């Protein structure tokens, strides 16, 4: 380097002479970088984004003057109106949707990106293609009656459910149930259908466990029964069973063993649901004993 010039300068030695005498001088020329080039956007102009997501990409740009100025970003309508659903971070270039796109509604967006160094601008057109993804849950159909009624104590066999899905030929249907046919009440069977993309839907069936069956009453001992005139009649009673559990038996009617006749005893049993079961016994009071003759 010549004396007095900085590293990187262009330098020249100048000499002026009148033929006899000469003067030499060092000339230093410094080239100063000025802002005279627009930014350069290095990101591609087309992007593909799955529907239902907000993030698109982060655009990248460099200053055309070798990093002399910072580059900022903004959006400009390209005539499509798509700018209404797009936004960009001015400092980072992060481009995103305001509302997540839906492929079934719109498959492509476009917008002009303005990259500026404060003086000059680059204006590339950006196109965003929307990918169709499986975001539709299967449709479930409950098979058989809904609601369904089953008798207390009976065995309940569920008819199940089926499902169809536009993007999956065989969605999986599972079920959960709290049905207890030993207790009167309303129960729920829940069906869940899931496709291979993880979308799921549910449906339910109401199962009403009811008690419409009266207790079964069984007469104990002989029926009809026979009692001799004048004897004491002791009834053998009756028993009852019911799907709801233990029930009691009430006996009505009387037997007059002092009078030859046919009598009826009625046995009644009621369960908690108000169902009533009955049975009867016939008691015949007879006289088969001859008079006692005293001499």
Compact description:
This protein is an all-beta fold.
General description of the model:
The protein is 0% helix and 45% strand. The protein has no helices and 24 strands. It has strands at residues 10-17, 22-29, 40-41, 46-50, 55-58, 61-62, 72-76, 86-88, 94-97, 108-116, 121-122, 125-131, 139-142, 148-151, 161-164, 172-177, 185-194, 200-210, 216-219, 225-228, 238-241, 250-252, 261-270, 276-286. The strands form 8 sheets. Strands 4, 7, 10, 11 and 12 form a 5-stranded mixed β-sheet that branches. A hairpin with a 5-residue loop joins strand 8 (86-88) and strand 9. The model has no long low-confidence stretch (mean pLDDT 92).
Number of helices: 0
- The quaternary organization reads as single chain
N-end to C-end Cα span: 175 Å
Helix proportion range? under 10%
The whole-angstrom Rg is 50 Å
Question: Which residues form runs of ≥5 with pLDDT under 50?
Answer: none
Strand portion: over 45%
Write down the secondary-structure element order: EEEEEEEEEEEEEEEEEEEEEEEE
Number of strands: 24
Mean of pLDDT: 92
Q: The biggest beta sheet, please? A: 5 strands, mixed
- Overall shape: it is rod-shaped
Q: Class by helix and strand content?
A: mainly beta
């Amino acid at each position: 380097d010549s004396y007095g010039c900085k590293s990187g300068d262009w330098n020249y030695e100048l000499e002026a002479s009148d033929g006899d005498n000469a003067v030499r001088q060092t000339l230093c020329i410094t080239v100063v970088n000025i802002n005279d080039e627009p930014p350069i956007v290095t990101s591609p102009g087309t992007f593909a984004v799955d529907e239902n997501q907000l993030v698109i990409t982060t655009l990248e740009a460099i200053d055309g003057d070798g990093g002399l100025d910072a580059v900022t970003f903004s959006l400009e309508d390209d005539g499509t109106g798509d700018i209404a659903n797009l936004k960009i971070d001015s400092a980072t270039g992060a481009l995103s949707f305001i509302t997540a796109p839906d492929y079934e509604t719109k498959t492509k967006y476009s917008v002009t990106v303005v990259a500026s160094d404060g003086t000059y601008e680059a204006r590339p057109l950006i196109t965003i293609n929307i990918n169709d993804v499986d975001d539709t849950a299967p449709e479930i159909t409950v098979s058989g009656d809904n609601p369904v009624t089953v008798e207390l104590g009976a065995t309940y066999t569920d008819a199940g459910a089926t499902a169809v899905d536009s993007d999956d030929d065989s969605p999986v249907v599972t079920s959960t149930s709290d049905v207890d046919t030993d207790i009167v009440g309303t129960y729920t069977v829940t069906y869940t259908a899931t496709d291979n993309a993880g979308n799921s839907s549910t449906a339910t069936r109401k199962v009403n466990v009811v008690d419409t069956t009266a207790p079964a009453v069984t007469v104990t001992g002989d029926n009809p029964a026979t009692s001799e005139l004048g004897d004491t009649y002791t009834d053998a009673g009756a028993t009852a069973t019911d799907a709801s559990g233990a029930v009691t038996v009430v006996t009505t009617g009387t037997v007059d063993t002092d009078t030859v006749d046919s009598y009826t005893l009625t046995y009644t049993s009621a369960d908690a649901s108000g169902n009533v079961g009955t049975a009867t016994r016939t008691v015949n009071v007879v006289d088969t004993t001859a008079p006692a003759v005293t001499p």
